[in-house]
Amino acid sequence: MSTDAVVEIKKLNLIFPAPDAPVHALSDIDLKLDAGDFVSFIGPSGCGKTTLMRVIADLETPTDGHISVNGLSPEEARKNRAYGYVFQAPALYPWRTVQKNIMLPLEIMGLSKQEQRERAEKNLALVNLEGFEKKFPWQLSGGMQQRVSIARALAVEPDLLLMDEPFGALDEITRDHLNEQLLKLWNQTQKTVVFVTHSIPEAVFLSSKIVVMSPRPGKIIDIIDSGLPRDRTLDIRETPEFLEISHRVREGLRSGHSYDD
Ligand SMILES: Nc1ncnc2c1ncn2[C@@H]1O[C@H](COP(=O)(O)OP(=O)(O)OP(=O)(O)O)[C@@H](O)[C@H]1O
């Protein structure tokens, strides 16, 4: 395995055991993600996007094959706090303020109170939520809550930001706005991001690499290295280059019969 890759996966399979019919969730996955990539996993419901991300995060164990994260096993990488995870729902504690929500994992890490406060402040600024430290989650909109959970994930200073359909529950206007903000954040922080989505425009707009998956069993059908500039605005969605990549994603999904599901 080369050491420059942040994530390297070779011939990986994952079969969920079940007494009646085991589920072959991931089949022969080969994938290499480089530092600074913004990678989207796109595919229909049940194709294994979340499972693949959970394998990277050491939340699932593959049945066979090889995976390394920063040249280490996923377990070692997790112990080194390589991951920040953002879920579909913001999963904030309602009885803790925004600041205290962000500080919680830092408290568990044993950082000093001052370091916790500094990191909360810095990462709230990154998601444009300065001044909201003392608010409670229920005082914020859904989009703002999701930004808090992104700030919380970034505050542990992970190499890899793993995002599982973080904007799936939001309206399209809010989602567009957050997509633009997320791209800015990616450019500012130079993090490696892995992002799960069902949306072709979202995947093409955000990504430097798009991984198209098909169900039964979950396979990678196509890996598209996007030639779009890193610094993009939503206007790019009207350009022939954007439409060409979208077309290739759609063709990949169609060849995997994803539309039948
Ligand atoms: N713990 C588990 N035990 C058994 N089967 C599971 C388990 N977790 C996931 N699966 C199955 O594995 C397959 C892949 O699931 P996964 O959640 O990764 O898909 P997905 O592409 O993320 O779907 P969605 O877009 O709906 O979130 C599905 O058929 C799912 O039912």
Automatic annotation (TrEMBL):
CDD domains, alphabetized: ABC_NrtD_SsuB_transporters (cd03293)
Domain ABC transporter, residue spans: 9-240
Gene Ontology molecular function, alphabetical: ATP binding
InterPro entries: AAA+_ATPase, ABC_transporter-like_ATP-bd, ABC_transporter-like_CS, ABC_transporter_ATP-bind, P-loop_NTPase
SUPFAM superfamilies: P-loop containing nucleoside triphosphate hydrolases
Keywords carried by this UniProt record: ATP-binding, Nucleotide-binding, Transport
Family statement drawn from the similarity comment of this UniProt entry: Belongs to the ABC transporter superfamily.
Name the UniProt record assigns to this protein: ABC transporter ATP-binding protein
